[in-house]
Design brief:
Number of strands: 24
Shape: globular
Helix content: 25-40%
CATH superfamily of the largest domain: Enolpyruvate transferase domain
Radius of gyration: 21 Å
CATH topology of the largest domain: UDP-n-acetylglucosamine1-carboxyvinyl-transferase, Chain
Number of helices: 12
CATH architecture of the largest domain: Alpha-beta prism
Bound molecules: shikimate-3-phosphate
């Protein structure tokens, strides 16, 4: 099954040392938000380093459908001429967000308080994911939503013509839900308040402030209380998108498990709400160094060097860290397979509702490759075999999930025998240059049908 055209079977073979500089693409979360916030300003926002993966390109198309002018100038340079807060036009066609939960949920929020109707759909993965977590709070503004059973796409939203401001405690740790409510709050009068018990990535808050909105964050006993003043006039910005730490995770983790490796990944965004993987890897004994720490465009940035780490140990990854590395568990579980002892990942229920059920998808493929995995509703444990001892010789399913496909590609670089991936096509959603970038470092990933 492929949601992205023809399936692309891939084989990742054990390889020699990975060496060199890996320029990974722009941050996916910041790229989506740059386009959406640009569309909500009157005037021209300039974006450098936009991720040109399918997920973000679908959001660019959607912003055009809502009336913004989005122009690709080549080389990651884009401009967005927006329509202003509350200025979205009604799209003439169905909005197809492809594989992207972030795209659809943020766009739903952004249109929810304008007097327009829009219908959303996606690929087989996205159409299976829960949207009630977004449409429930949007209903408090006065937005109506009709979708398939279980709050699934395709779904039509009728924006609130006279929205009221909302106070909402997010019931699951989700930056997408938080962001959808804040974006909806932009066109409601008065103050919209969002409370999150566990901090999730805060790009929306930082960027709203950067675009001139009045937004305050207070840490209280209730959690993080975010207060947004409604109906601001957003001011167009020049945005330099940092490179994606979630994409950096793949060459970094590959370097840790392939003997002799030494890889530099420059300009990585190290927002603390995103950097949990690197803390975890260091606790496991990874040889990671952060060079040239600096701040760019309101986000902390550094160059990250990763070297082969012969003494990786399994650890307990605490629930409190989950949100800051939620997309990195698939590749962490691969590193865990090459460590000594058990890696115990706790408080990760959200992994079950990502592009795939990521615990299930990784557990199946790791077991097929000879690694013991135990799992429960919100936890999983990988029993490491140590370097050189993971058999491989497996065919694994990517389940329409880019991060599953890339995690298994990394695994195959250090197993005894190759790893075959049924479909690598989803990789294009977030990391379209993955195969070439890894090949330049020395990886041997081939398309099995060529
Ligand atoms: C994202 C939030 C996270 C993450 C996703 C990107 C975002 O999802 O998994 O890849 O940009 O807000 P949740 O909000 O479901 O945790």
């Amino acid at each position: 099954m492929s949601g992205h055209g023809t399936p692309i079977p891939m084989t990742s073979r054990p390889c020699g040392p990975l060496k060199g500089i890996a320029h990974v693409p722009g941050d996916k979360s910041i790229s989506h938000r740059s386009l959406i916030l640009g569309a909500l300003c009157v005037g021209e926002t300039r974006i450098t380093g936009l991720l040109e993966g399918d997920d973000v390109l679908d959001t660019a198309k959607a912003m055009r459908a809502f009336g913004a002018t989005v122009t690709d100038h080549g080389g990651g340079e884009w401009t967005v001429s927006g329509v202003g807060v509350g200025g979205f036009a009604e799209p003439q066609n169905i909005i197809d967000c492809g594989n992207s939960g972030t795209g659809v949920r943020l766009i739903m929020g952004a249109m929810a308080t304008s007097p327009i109707t829009a219908t959303f759909t996606g690929d087989a993965s996205l159409n299976g994911r829960p949207m009630g977590r977004v449409t429930d709070p949007l209903a408090l503004f006065g937005t109506q939503a009709v979708g398939r059973e279980g709050g699934r796409l395709p779904m039509t939203l009728v924006g609130a013509a006279e929205p009221v401001p909302v106070r909402y405690t997010v019931p699951v740790p989700s930056a997408q839900v938080k962001s959808a409510v804040l974006l909806a709050g932009l066109n409601a009068p008065g103050q919209t308040v969002v409370i999150e018990k566990e901090a999730t990535r805060d790009h929306t808050e930082r960027m709203l402030q950067g675009f001139g909105a009045t937004l305050h964050v207070e840490e209280t006993s209730e959690g993080r209380v975010i207060t947004l003043d409604g109906q601001p006039e957003l001011i167009p910005q020049t945005i330099i998108v940092p490179r994606d730490p979630s994409s950096a995770a793949f060459p970094v983790c590959a370097a840790l498990i392939v003997p002799g490796s030494d890889v530099l990944v420059p300009n990585i965004g190290l927002n603390p709400t995103r950097a949990g993987l690197f803390t975890t890897l260091q606790e496991m004994g990874a040889d990671l160094t952060f060079e040239n720490m600096r701040e760019e465009g309101g986000e902390p940035v550094a160059d990250l060097r990763a070297k082969f780490s012969p003494d990786l140990q399994g650890i307990v990854v605490p629930p409190a860290r989950a949100a800051s590395m939620i997309d990195e568990y698939p590749v962490l579980s691969v590193v865990a397979a090459f460590a000594e002892g058990v890696t115990d990942m706790q408080g990760v229920k959200e992994l079950r509702v990502k592009e795939s059920d990521r615990i299930d998808a990784m557990a199946k493929g790791l077991r097929a490759a000879g690694v013991q995995v135990n799992d429960g509703p919100d936890w999983w444990q990988v029993t490491g075999l140590g370097h050189g001892n993971v058999p491989g010789s497996a065919t694994v399913a990517s389940e329409l999930d880019h991060r599953i496909a890339m995690a298994f590609a990394v695994m195959g670089m250090a197993t005894q025998k190759p790893v075959h991936i049924d479909d690598g096509s989803p990789i294009a959603t977030s990391f379209p240059i993955f195969e070439g970038l890894m090949a330049d470092l020395g990886a041997q990933i081939v398309r099995s049908n060529t």
